[in-house]
Amino acid sequence: MHELIKYQFNTRRKKYGTGAALSLLNGNVGREVLAFHKKLPNYAVTPLHNLAHLSRRLGLGSIHIKDESWRFGLNAFKGLGGSYAVGKYLADKLQCDINSLSFAALNAPEIKEKIKDCVFVTATDGNHGRGVAWAAEQLGLKAVVYMPKGSSLIRAENIRHHGAECTITDLNYDDAVRLAHRMAQTKGWVLLQDTAWTGYEEIPTWIMQGYMTLAVEAYEQLAETNSPLPTHLILQAGVGSFAGSVMGYFVEKMQENIPNIIVVEPHQANCLYQSAVMNDGQPHCVTGDMATIMAGLACGEPNIISWPIIRDNTSCFISADDCLAAKGMRIAAAPRPGTDTPFISGESGAIGVGLLYELMNNMHYQDLANRLQLDASAHVLLISTEGDTSPDIYEDIVWNGRSA
């Protein structure tokens, strides 16, 4: 029988302070990153929705979800990482402190003269590339973006809208990353990639740090509304940069009260799940086309920076069927009138909602839900990382019932 959910509990989870170092993701770094983002055009705190009706329906204490469809007008969270990495790179180039830097200052004529020849290159399924293109656009700089085969034409056009050169290749995501790397080396461009490998670690670290803004905001929003801190974090993963960033921040903040952390990936691109199954402490890759509706998670090679954080802090790794992402999108879009706030969540953003609903409603997974301590005392935090970044796909799923 085809399983909607495959899972692997983590036997390598560490107690706070005994695992991978988290100094690059602590509260001080988070505040520095947030201060940088507050100086950017269109910065605003994104909503944190309290899904009180859904939590009662599922028998949980509370469910909160951070809605990143509102981020910078880009319909996804990825601009946080791209913009901060651009800022850090240019601060280093100009030999100044990131804390004294803003995009407004970088547009001063004498500064623009020093950075005018910078060209940023990256590979993306859509959201990261758009974030890099947007950041470059703010400074009048050039961006070159490569997308894997099968990428949404609408997502490509959204990237070009910011002035970037964008090409849909005939490669899978990981090979598109290798292409971007080769082009950077050949042409002297700056590779702004949201994953790391041996010898390429500084910029991916900056990108992970950039994502911390949404975690800092969520933590503060929970406090401001007198809501309980999460007992459970459900984080979706591609290469693991986002998941590692958010869990790293919350582990550092909550220390001895670390939440149960669930990392979820699509079946077709479940490299972190497969790494957990291998259980040798090392990251393992998956290959092939990785054809999933969760395009933002269609990555087969773990980020070597985030992997130790994920390995040492995740409670359970889950590989999920595409239909759960589709279900999550419909739940987000159509709560019963007068109950929860409806919101638009894309394929990669809604998998946490769909997974949680399945765990709590499908008797086949009751034992798993019990082992995860998903009960009336559970307070679950989710992140909807994107909105309808490809409206045609969104409508096909939400309106027409597509599930794969």
UniProtKB/TrEMBL annotation:
Give every Tryptophan synthase beta chain-like PALP domain span.
42-353
MF annotations from Gene Ontology: diaminopropionate ammonia-lyase activity; pyridoxal phosphate binding
Going by the UniProt record, its keywords in alphabetical order are: Lyase, Pyridoxal phosphate
What are the names of the required cofactors? pyridoxal 5'-phosphate
Q: Does the keyword Lyase apply?
A: yes
Matches recorded under InterPro entries: DiNH2opropionate_NH3_lyase (IPR010081), DiNH2propionate_NH3-lyase_sub (IPR019871), TrpB-like_PALP (IPR001926), TrpB-like_PALP_sf (IPR036052)
Report if keyword Lyase is assigned: yes
What is any Pfam family matched here? PALP
Q: What is its EC number?
A: 4.3.1.15
Matching entries from PANTHER family are given as: DIAMINOPROPIONATE AMMONIA-LYASE (PTHR42937:SF1), PTHR42937
Q: Which NCBIfam families match?
A: 2_3_DAP_am_ly, diampropi_NH3ly, PRK08206.1
Q: Would you tell me the protein name for this molecule? A: Diaminopropionate ammonia-lyase
Where does this protein come from, organism-wise?
Salmonella enterica
Question: Which gene name does the record give?
Answer: dpaL
